[in-house]
Amino acid sequence: MRFLVLTMMLGLIAAPAFAAESAADADKDAANIFNSTCGWCHQGGGRVAGGIGPKLMNSERDDEFILNRIRQGKEGKMPAFGGSLNDAQIQALLRYIRNLKPEN
Ligand code: HEC
Fold first, then answer.
1. pLDDT of residue 7
2. Is residue 77 over pLDDT 70?
3. Which residue from 78, 89, 97 has its CB within 8 A of the most atoms of ligand 1, so it is best to mutate?
4. Is the pLDDT of residue 104 over 90?
5. Ligand 1 centroid to 91 CA: how many Å?
6. Alpha carbons 66 and 95: distance in angstroms, whole number
7. What average pLDDT does the segment 27-54 reach?
8. Ligand 1 mean position to 65 CA, how many Å?
9. pLDDT of residue 3
10. What is the distance in A from the centroid of ligand 1 to the CA of 73?
11. Quick one: which of 2, 38, 55, 89 has the fewest CB in 10 Å?
12. Angle 87-98/2-33 helices, nearest 10 degrees?
């Protein structure tokens, strides 16, 4: 019982800090996930064409399309990541793609 109360108190104190951290962390993670998981098909961090997958920077696709493509992949072309990445990670990948700027 004492353990439960303690856990609840810690939860209350820790929750806001974790929430703030995880949004920033998710964006940092997205770049890492992209580099390790997507980058070998989407070249230049998603900035350039000419790889196995298309350029993603300045995509004219809407958010829903991009989220679904990441979740479901495309048969024979791109693996589905809905099973290996959670929703926060997939949303962060969408933000990563939207924020891509040319490298100088
Ligand atoms: C095995 C290679 C491969 C990997 C790995 C891969 N993709 Fe793709 N991706 C493709 C190909 C090929 C297409 C084009 C599919 C088509 O013909 O519509 C594509 C399409 C996309 C599209 C839609 C682009 C558009 O305008 O149609 C997005 C967004 C995307 N990929 C994001 C990602 C993300 C994010 C990851 C990592 C989590 C990833 N891809 C991993 C090959 C890959």
1. 54
2. yes
3. 78
4. no
5. 15
6. 10
7. 95
8. 11
9. 56
10. 7
11. 2
12. 40
